[in-house]
User: Fold these one by one.
Assistant:
Number 1:
Amino acid sequence: MTTAVLCMAYGGPTSLEEVEDYYTDIRGGRRPSPESLADLMSRYEAIGGLSPLPEITRRQAAALGEALEAASPGRYRTHVGMKHWHPFVGEAVEDIVAQGADEVIGLVLAPHYSKMSIGGYEQRLVAARAATGASFSVDMIPSWYDDEGFIAFAAANLRAALGDWDPAEDGTRVFFSAHSLPERILAEGDPYRDQLLDSSRLTAEAAEVPNWEFAFQSQSQTGEPWLGPDVLTSLEAFAAAGGKRAIVSPIGFVADHLEVLYDLDIEAAELADKLGVDLRRTASPNDDPRFIQVLSGVVRKRAAQAV
């Protein structure tokens, strides 16, 4: 049996020239206003003029393919598909069909489930299969937020970021973060927030960090309420209470991209400097070999369950 593992991520522009079309795809085909486009362009310019996410995702998928080959020779082949930029999920499915596969395991490179996020990837995968007339089976991995390997990796990452700081001191706090989503998902019974809180708690316990809280970040301006509190507001409250040392651990992200490199490394860092707070961030997993082994374990566990 040949199993294609489709590694899916949000996507991102690989040059400033691609930003407008990328943004338009996010907006469902509606062109952004000149003001909104200029704001987004300035953010990408601040981090080097492109998103590193597509290249990192390719490296993650390639390394995962090597790890799976080592564990189960000849069984797995990895592919990359993006939600909002090339190679789109549909393009990846065309490649899978051309190479042949009996089944496809869908692995979204985000640990926590939400119908708006993971559900959207699944819809694209199933629609692309139908469009190609392919007969392969589809098995989506819904989440892996509490995977033992993931928690152990996140805890080790957090301890490394803490360095010589004592996490038990009152003036030191860890802020776990993830992308905000509209508040209405809670009324729909979406597990996103609960899963984020669970993985934050498990990571803090494994790292022996008593002082922590969770905050959302990077909400979009859509005119409706989004989940909070926001990490910037939380940092302000922490400083007002006498806090001096903060670690931001973006538990919801597994690769460097705009929401990490700008929203945290620039925007949050500038705010922390004004507040007199020493701010550190945990390193993104990217293609760290330890993290790749986590992904390999997640895929192989899912495959074993299907037998």
Number 2:
Amino acid sequence: MDGVRLRFRHRPLCPDASPDPRHARPARERRPLPRADLGVVVRVPLSWIRQFAPVEGEVSDLAEQLDDLGLVVEGIVRVGEGLEDVVVARVQEIGTIAGADRIRRVVVDAGQGSVEVVCGAWNFEEGDLVPLAPVGAVLPGGFEIARRKMKGVVSNGMLCSPRELELSEDHQGILVIRTDGSGAPAPGTALTEALGIERDVVFDLAVDANRPDASSVAGVARDLAASLKVPFEIPDPVAPDPAPGAPSVHELASVEVVDRDLCPRFVGRVLTAVPIGPSPPWVARRLTLAGMRPINSVVDASNYVMLE
């Protein structure tokens, strides 16, 4: 038979070919590159963009503008819709269920008496504030909460994760509501009121590896402002004055620049006696919308600066 070439074993056809022993994809297609090589998905809230530029218009039109800029919109999440029935509840009691090792019986105070639910998350404890979707509530996406019986225990609602509330993609556990010391919301308070949730839009943007400038909210806002011909401005933060009698920065830290061609200037600031606790609600809200779980004031400040 003419034109047939045989080879033994899984051996590349040429010296620089990939020694991949798997069969080729149909129609001689290349295998997809790993997501890390292609770029990342960045969640950008519209309200955060508007901190840098007065962006207005229909959400669909803004999505088209982002697409034209090379920031492909892979998804649009409308935050704050479908949360009208979700309330804040305080965990009163957590108990085991006979014959079940992955779910627990949880009793919460929802403001009008105790409510018994069954939950499979383990990231909360007694005394924590969590979101409760009671029976009859309809969550984002049209998911209606019904009364269910599991392992002989009746669940009269559902404790919700951030993803179930469409606040972020985090589904590793229940959303635990932290407070900044200004007063915890009372059980029965609407979740939107407790978290200061307002109607917002979050764009899921596919940012290629060659566009690191668009991996931050300010970078996306800069491109969008230029496309829409609206002003762009980065707010100038006001640094606090050093406390009277405080030691100088040189006494607390030192920096050595090894190569001044690569780093001609390095600026640092030392913070002391920083209290660690819950972040302000507006910080926690922005982090949540951007896909990050609020931890504490120090961690959240680092993540906030990285995202912005």
Number 3:
Amino acid sequence: MSEEQKSFRRAGVIGWPIEHSKSPILHNYWLEKYGIEGSYEKIAVQPDMLADGFQHLIKKGYAGWNLTIPHKEVAVPLMDSLDPAAERIGAVNTVVVDEDGKLKGYNTDGYGFLKNLQNSVPEWEPKNCTALVLGAGGAARAAVDSLAQSGVPQIYIMARNLKKAAQLAEDFTTEKSRISVYEWGENPALFETVTLLVNATPLGMEGNEDEPDLTIIRHLPKDTAVVYDLVYTPLETDLLERAKKRGLKTVTGIGMLAYQAVPGFSYWFGQRPEVTEELLNLLT
């Protein structure tokens, strides 16, 4: 790596497609805020060219990159090492290139999920939580892992794909955290026990016509329940609007996007960035 490459740090986000990504808004905001010489850009790489793409970026002197759909899972075997979260979740969203050109894969989605929840609802306590996570895909894996690792004693998963949900429960159950699986459908007796509802499905996302068919909101305990929607386009989803009308605490998904970016920026540019209201407003 040349002296110029060392002083001017380069990073980016790889996806296919990639135009939708908001990550450059985050990182370029922080680069300007902290006066760091560097760049962060969108990088379109086809799935069958991912390994070659990594090698190209290493040769170009990149400090690392983020990964988004559809690369998070297929990148795992391309890493030289993984952090514990990436190993547990089976997906990588942040890659760091070391001095020898070796790749370390991290998963910071769970970190972003938890930091956003803690920042939005400071009084939230894992030990007092009964969580219900809707979905069994990649976002659900990160959410369930972070909840289990933080010591939430009871986590329920409700999904249309019971096989995936059962695998998720098996992967993340710990001595302190019990995980149970339920088929997608009405279950008022279950809903009434839930103090944290997490939507980790695309339901409510712009362009997704498959509307939620559950009446969960009307059954959640009014004084204690928190509703957390990982969808952030639109920012105020139908689920969150209904929760607010009932007087429940709500958490939007945009903060998770911001907080999951913090570790990567720190690794690549040597500065721990701050998530501010100004930044969140930029993203929305």
Number 4:
Amino acid sequence: MTTPVTVGFDGSPEADAAVDWAAQEAVHRERPLRIVYAWEWQPYRLTLMDARTERHWVRHVPHQAASALAGRYPRLEVTAEVLGGAPVPTLLSESNGSELLVLGSRALSAWHGFVIGSVAQSIVAHSTGPVALVRASTEVSEAAAAAESGPAPEPAEREVVLGVDLDNPSDDLMSFSFATAARRAAPLHVVHGWKALAPVLPDTAHLGHEHKEHLAHKEEERLSEALRPWADTYPDVTVREDSHAGSTADHLVNCSRDAQLLLVGRRAPGLHLGARIGHVTHAAMHHSAAPVIVVPHNE
């Protein structure tokens, strides 16, 4: 059975954008698309619809979205289903059988970033598979609208950006990222951040610049060494190595402005710890201008 790209849907503008983006991603990956609406009646919620009316609306909108996609992507297999249950456990269950789970997020402003709701936050923190976060934007809608006869290809010069932590390397993240760039025929911009520790003794202050240059060269070599086997495995992927002194989170967010996609990892905690999202991944989720895919991996 072919694993699908699954998208969580609730009829909101951000969910519409997520569905459009998920359809294009399913085409890139040559996978079917599954639209899932997780719904349960909440009698004490303030709403203008009674349970029967809301249930009818819920059953209608995901199938309407699937029908609209079928006209734009005639070769894409699209299915839609309403599942009873709370969104977080329902979508987490769906992610287990999916190649990728796609969710929407809402833009605030260039300064304040995006609203990542409690549902998306919990799913990213607990999912055992990759989760994509797509914001509602004019750019995504225009790309989908322009694809009436098929998917609109991403401009080749727009990079896929990958953030790596060389102190906690992940084969899962590397493999996913190189394969994603290869499918999109896109350059892969790999970012590794590091911090230079200043000399602590007064009489060694003049060595600061030399010390930083030495560290920079060492970190560049570490990055090249980590990427070498993956570059050999994916020779058609153009790799741009970026060993950056300073904040990894800030640099990744800056790089995302001209990227088609940002990829980051999330370490799965040990049994003695609860689920968590690191500060770099958290910053990417809330401030990236491009869609973000979070790939979980072991400690």
